Every structure is written in structure tokens, then in C-alpha cells.
Amino acid sequence: xxxxxxxxxxxxxxxxxxxxxxxxxxxxxxxxxxxxxxxxxxxxxxxxxxxxxxxxxxxxxxxxxxxxxxxxxxxxxxxxxxxxxxxxxxxxxxxxxxxxxxxxxxxxxxxxxxxxxxxxxxxxxxxxxxxxxxxxxxxxxxxxxxxxxxx
Length: 151
Description:
Blueprint: H1 3-21, H2 29-36, H3 40-51, H4 55-73, H5 78-84, H6 90-101, H7 105-111, H8 119-126
């Protein structure tokens, strides 16, 4: 990997980390691209190539992951959770949740109680399995886990 590619990857990781820290805040591509010190269009292209999903979809997935935890572990209403994780519309939250998880937030809560396991195990087990396609590595062949939706 060239020095330029390594530098770009570090910048993209820095931007992704910023998204992870501020997932509940209103974020747009321009703001996150500024963290990586590249243009919004170039950031979006590179982010998708490296992480296999658009910055917007990544942010949605992170918000849904957090909402899954809150649905399992708290008694907060779905509406409270929707706004707590950064969505501004209950309808958009419910539709996105259903698209990523495969069931509505209410049905998810009914079927999934609190998990008794170390947090790292909980996070791995509860990660939504979407239809995210991984970018092919340098050799051109997708990895065996390309269809799992897991990073």
C-alpha cells in the first residue's frame, strides 16, 4: 500500500471515528469530510470504496445499533429512543430500523430482552446483518465474509 493510500485510510478512519462519537448529532457529509480534510464528493467515494457503504448509510447503521441497545436495556419509549440516537422523524427511524434489522422497533423490543454477556460479545451478536457489500481487496476477489454485512 502506498504512503498516499495509508494517509487517506487514516483520514477516513479519523472521520469514521468522529461519526461514531457524534452519531446522535446532526451530521452531514461536508462536516465529516472536513474531519478527513478532503472534499465531500471525494470523501463519499473513498468512504464507500474502503468501508463498503456510504457515509450516510454507515451513520444510519450506527444509530440503529445504538437504538437496538436502548430498546433492549431501557424502558424508554420508541419515540424517545428515536430522537436520542439522532433521527428527527419517527417514521424515518421506524422504516430505517425495519430495513436494517428486519423487524419494527416495537417487535424487536418484544423479542429481545436484556443480554447478559460481556459488552463486546453483546455488540458483536446484536450487530444488524444488512446487505452491505464489501469492497474487493487489492487482489480483486471479495472476502468470504462479503455477504455477511459485518465489517
